[in-house]
Each structure stands twice: as structure tokens, then as C-alpha cells.
Amino acid sequence: MMSMTSKLFWGGVSIAGIAVGGILGIAFLKTGLTIQALLTENKELKGAIENLTVEEQIGYAKVMRQTEKDGKTLTTLKFVETARTDPLEVVLESEFTLEGDVVHFDALIVKFGDEFVRDGKGRSLYLWRRVYGEYMSPSEGFPITVHGREPERYRGLLAKLGFRERDLFWAEIWDLAHDKRRLIDYGIEAVFGTAVYSELRPGLIYIFKISSTGQVYPEVIPDL
Asked: What is the rounded distance in angstroms from the CA atom of residue 207 to the CA atom of residue 98?
């Protein structure tokens, strides 16, 4: 038994995302705007990436309740995505109910190479993808951030870019993981998925942090 009380529904989002992606793709083709030109020539985008700071915390989760039904454990959890600039500021909050007590949190990491920014220090984007339980396949998971759309925690990052440029960037950045040649051409060091899972218990908060290598890991503290 699985349910989600947020307003996102996987099937509908996927179909809508494909339709929007197709429309945007046609528009970009007609205007001549490309992701290569955006990443290699656009000074406003490079400036926005340079403004990214080193992050330690990117969200947290806590168990709202755990119940037993028909011999199965049901875990209802709250997932919170926090702001880039303030770990106490909530930018996205969703509630999910999953079978079992082991929950997977899936994210996409985008690492910009040292040569992409003027100070020679690489930057990264951390994009939450989905949540899924131990009895689900990843493809059945509930989305946290809609594929191809601007994540709430990065809203405002590309404010100096035009509407079309912002849409193109976010539509393409999610798909670059499948084309390593393009990554090299664009000065992106890597795009990779990472999933962290934990056995969740009431009375604890699972704070998701980032290691120096870009891996996500939970730090567990009491929910006081």
C-alpha cells in the first residue's frame, strides 16, 4: 500500500513533462538557442554558477507516524528541501506514505569543472529526484522535483537570464548524464545519480549532507 499526500502524481507529471519538453525543443530549434552556446558563451550563466557556494545540508526527513496494517509496516514521512543560502529555510515540503521502514532518497549531482569558473574552484548543483520504499522499484518512486523543471531551491539563481534561457538550461541539465561527450564540450565534469537509504524511526531527524566528493549521506539527530 502506497500513497502520497503532495499534489504531484507520477504518471501525469511524466506525460506533461514530455509534452512541455517537446514544445520547448521545437521553440529552441526555431530560435537557434542551444545549450552549448548557453554553457560556453553566456556570461550571465557563468556568473550565476560562480555564485554557487559550498553546501553542506540540502534537506532533511522525519517520520510522522509508523503503523501496522495487514501485517505490513507503513511509514509516513515528511521530506523537506532547504534553501541554498539558509539551512533553516524551507523551500519545498512533501509528505509520503510508503510500505516498510527503509526509504531511499534519490538525487542528481551536476559538477561543473574547475575551468568553468574564473576562480578555478568547481561548483555543483544538487537536484532531488524522488523517494521510494524498499518494496518499490526506483521508477515507481514519488517525485520530489519534476524532471526538467527549475528546482525550488535554485529559484532565482538564473534571474539574470531570459525566460527561454532558463527553460533551456533546466530542460537540458537533467539529461546530460546520458551524453558524456557533451559534458566535456560544455565544461561539466560529471552528472551522476546518487541514492541514500536509511531505516527510518520516529523521534529522529535525518539531515542530508554533502561530502567533499559530492556524495549524499544522512546525519541522524534527535527530534527535540
From this structure: 19
pLDDT single digits (tens) 156-178: 889 999 999 999 999 888 887 66
Q: What is the pTM of this model?
A: 0.77
Q: Which residues contact 80 (CB under 8 A, 6 or more apart)?
A: 59, 60, 61, 90, 92, 93
- Band (pLDDT 50/70/90 cuts) for residue 3 is very low
Q: Which residue in 8, 6, 10 sits closest to 141, CA to CA?
A: 10
Cell of residue 150, nine digits: 527549475
Integer Rg of the chain from CA: 18
- Please state, as a whole number, how many other Cβ atoms lie within 10 Å of the Cβ of residue 28: 19
User: Which pLDDT band holds residue 130 (cuts at 50, 70, 90)?
Assistant: very high
List all residues 6 or more positions away from 197 whose beta carbon is below 8 Å from its beta carbon: 102, 103, 104, 105, 134
Spatial distance between the Cα atoms of 133 and 200, rounded to a whole number of angstroms: 11
Q: How many whole angstroms separate alpha carbon 39 and alpha carbon 216?
A: 26
**Distance, CA of 195 to chain centre:** 11
